[in-house]
Amino acid sequence: MVDVPALVEQAREGRPRAVARLISLVEGASPQLREVMAALAPLTGGAYVVGLTGSPGVGKSTSTSALVSAYRRQGRRVGVLAVDPSSPFSGGALLGDRVRMSEHASDPGVYIRSMATRGHLGGLAWAAPQAIRVLDAAGCDVILVETVGVGQSEVEIASQADTSVVLLAPGMGDGIQAAKAGILEIGDVYVVNKADRDGADATARELNHMLGLGEARTPGDWRPPIVKTVAARNEGTDEFVAALEKHHAWMAERDVLAERRLRRAAHEIETIAVTALRERIGDLRGDRRLGALAERVVGGTLDPYAAADELVAGLTTG
Amino acid sequence: MVDVPALVEQAREGRPRAVARLISLVEGASPQLREVMAALAPLTGGAYVVGLTGSPGVGKSTSTSALVSAYRRQGRRVGVLAVDPSSPFSGGALLGDRVRMSEHASDPGVYIRSMATRGHLGGLAWAAPQAIRVLDAAGCDVILVETVGVGQSEVEIASQADTSVVLLAPGMGDGIQAAKAGILEIGDVYVVNKADRDGADATARELNHMLGLGEARTPGDWRPPIVKTVAARNEGTDEFVAALEKHHAWMAERDVLAERRLRRAAHEIETIAVTALRERIGDLRGDRRLGALAERVVGGTLDPYAAADELVAGLTTG
């Protein structure tokens, strides 16, 4: 058994191996998961969580790396969670193939973790918030959650952030693709990266137009800004950080931040509860009760709905 | 409110509109769903359910139609459930675009129903078994469940049949594709349709080879036969029906049929129970309890797992 309090203490001191160990414990649904979660709870809530999403090739890793550098210059501790739902690879390895990222590898103020699809339980949508909790409790001031694609699970993971950033790059129809992916509804800040390329202004205009559609905002509403960057040359990073800080301040002033976090916590509790109930039902698979109910359904003396009612009633009374 | 007993009586008499009405009631999860299911229960168990699956273009509809004709010649009542998970279209309409199918449109001994993806609840994997129950209770001797694709939901739907038929057509790599789709594990009977085309023998050989791999069968085990047909010219239909009858008899002799139906019923009960619990949790979304738990999680005095435990405990005590 792992000495959880000691591990949490080491993580608080910024020891990367302790952080890695804690994430592995919560990610793998170890028997000590609950002990870890209970130990982390009083230490969470301090981090500002930023989600970054966008199609492959828009420069998410480079942009994330630029943000890391900017926050490090401010002396803030940064956690990076790179989530790739399409990759069969998982683990705490450093993203060696991400050149821009590796410059932070030796910085003790930065913790980088990659996460890929897991078969168990609810997958990433379930594991990502737990990893965020570890980074939060470990004392990260800012947590950047980078998701690779633009599918449903990415949108769900991004929704766990305080601020959601949608990245685009110049190119015909990219905005339309983003709209199709439902991504236009989740952005608090939009970034057109590779803004030195042809079509950057057109992409920004197209995006601005689409964001304005259906607009019926009341004064004080947040109007998502569109920031142009060239992350590879570190251009526009200050504006990007400023846009994030502005959104953070706007949320904090209006209790939006507290509301978002409440909604997120409620969703997280729901997901865990559904998973637990599903497992409990799964445990009944070899159980006499389910077999007996199935026999009555096959025999025609009970319909499957009435059988399900009996099953649920049996579950809930133990 | 619908007069359910009268409707069931009319369906038993073979009135297609009554059958259609009942399927709509169970498919749409109407308030009378439970009443319908309870009324159907004692009338079910008489039908032999055959699932037909395979890639688009292998001739599933034509093969299904040929089977319908063959069973009708035997004087048996036939139900057809054509399931298309990829189609946004749903309803009880006759499949007008399926020329071979429409020849049965005026035959009162045949009931044809198409079903497409539904957003509600568990989707088709949930709705298909209920529709099968209606056709079963309505007195169909044979129910043919035709699924359009080869994805996971098709495999799941096919697994609800007594006998699963996998259809292939001659063509490079079709067998390999089927293997990839996990389809080779679910077939009780294999059909190589369009057997007058080049490559039919090669496809059958390839299939025979793949089915033999990993073979360590005990005597008496079922060895899936491979039947060659040209459904459009009604060639091989008798052999196809004979293979089905043989499998049916083999299952009945060894209690395999009873076991399969028990396992299916257990799975069905589980699915309904999980859906019900999920809905119950969803009903709590506006509830004070979930909100209060979320507040404690955000405040750090409770972790999300402990909160989920409290939520489940609250659920189960009412």
TrEMBL record, chains A, B:
| SUPFAM superfamilies associated with the record | P-loop containing nucleoside triphosphate hydrolases (SSF52540)
- Can you tell me where the transmembrane regions are? none
| Keywords from the UniProt entry | Chaperone, GTP-binding, Hydrolase, Nucleotide-binding
Q: Name one Pfam family in it.
A: MeaB
InterPro entries linked to this entry: GTPase/Isobutyryl-CoA_mutase (IPR052040), GTPase_ArgK (IPR005129), P-loop_NTPase (IPR027417)
Q: Which domain of life is it from?
A: Bacteria
- MF GO annotations: GTP binding; GTPase activity
> Entry's PANTHER family?
LAO_AO TRANSPORT SYSTEM ATPASE, LYSINE/ARGININE/ORNITHINE TRANSPORT SYSTEM KINASE
User: NCBIfam families from the entry?
Assistant: lao
Q: Which family does it belong to?
A: Belongs to the SIMIBI class G3E GTPase family. ArgK/MeaB subfamily.
Q: What is this protein called?
A: Methylmalonyl Co-A mutase-associated GTPase MeaB
Per the UniProt record, the source organism is Streptomyces luteoverticillatus (Streptoverticillium luteoverticillatus)
Give the classification, highest ranks.
Bacteria, Bacillati, Actinomycetota, Actinomycetes, Kitasatosporales
Recorded name of the encoding gene: meaB
